[in-house]
Amino acid sequence: MNLNLTLIGQAIAFAVFVWFCMKYVWPPVMQALQERQKKIADGLDAASRATRDLELAQEQANETLRESKEQAAEILEQAHKRSNQMIEEARDNARQEGERMIANARSEIEQEINRAKEELRSQVARLAVEGAERILESSIDEAKHRELVDKLAAEL
Amino acid sequence: MATGDNLTSTAYIQHHLQNMTFGLHPENGWSMAATPEQASEMGFWAIHLDTMGWSIGLGLLFLWLFRKVARTASTGVPQGLQNFVEMMVEFVDNSVKETFHGKSRLIAPLSLTIFCWIFLMNLMDLVPVDVLPMLAQKIGAMFGADPAHVYFKVVPTTDVNATLGMSLSVFALIIFYAIRSKGVSGFIAELTLHPFNTPNKFFQVLLIPINFLLEVVTLLARPISLALRLFGNLYAGELIFILIAMLGLWQLPLHFAWATFHILIIVLQAFIFMMLTIVYLSMATEEH
To answer: Of B92, B87, B93, B91, which is closest to residue B69 (Cα–Cα)?
Structure first.
């Protein structure tokens, strides 16, 4: 247990090891550690940013969904209204058409009746004249009496 | 057990506590010491080959391991060895940051080297005490040496030269840092104007020798306590391992128990050496 050169040798070895460690071991490891720290911090940042973005996007999606639902409801309501209106209109049109047709038919019937009456009149007049002719034979001035019978027929 | 029939317990213990020494013997010149007496006759001009070999080998192992990781250190997901190295580096870095508040590129790698190197050297204590010395004896015998005179001490930190070598380096750093941050005059003032201080110039001059004596003792106590603490703990641990090894069959459970307990000491002593180095250096740079 005597002090000797080993002491100096050990001190030199120590100094060389420390120098090597300081020069070639510590800086690369430290640098790697710091770079990883930065990377992880960046990653966490990005993750939180992404979460925020996701929340924002979800909110937006919900908003859009709500709006479109509202729009759909509105459109549906409008369509309902419109269809009701159309049905109403169609009904009105149909009624009007029907009334018009009924009126037409009526006037046609009236015309028909009138024509039949006219015809009947003329035939009655002719029959009356014929009958009177036969009764009176030629004693009657045809032109004179025709006027008379026509007047009679008009009264019919 | 390496105790042959011709070895007494005392001789066995002494044999285990003797370093393999190469030095300048007054009579034989530069040669291997064949006996402890020859080794002590060599005085200062001798070197412990086993201490140097193991410490440098373990230091290179540490540097090789860490350098391998440092070269390929990726910023991605760390794997295997890189995890371990990064854990160590971060642990040391945190310890340094908590204690040393100045800026220094040296302190952190210095602490890492101290911690890992001392830990590895202490770890050799867990190798059963007879294995490597016996191997060395066999190898020595192959080279024609007398096996009884081949000494081999495996744990470098049980050699006071090794611990003192490190603590004196730390001591040099303490002085360097003190002078760098306070200047030569500041350093001298710190040695002479503390702890007793008066505004009266005359009394102050009288107090300077007392202050100097106290402060120098404080200063010198640091490297010596640093070295002897580590040396003492490991030396005692080693000695107990040797004593246990002489117990015959009973050594097995005892050895296991002591080794388990010793793991704690190994790590603790490495940690204490590192922490005290940081504390001393931070004290050297800070104003009182």
So the answer is: B87
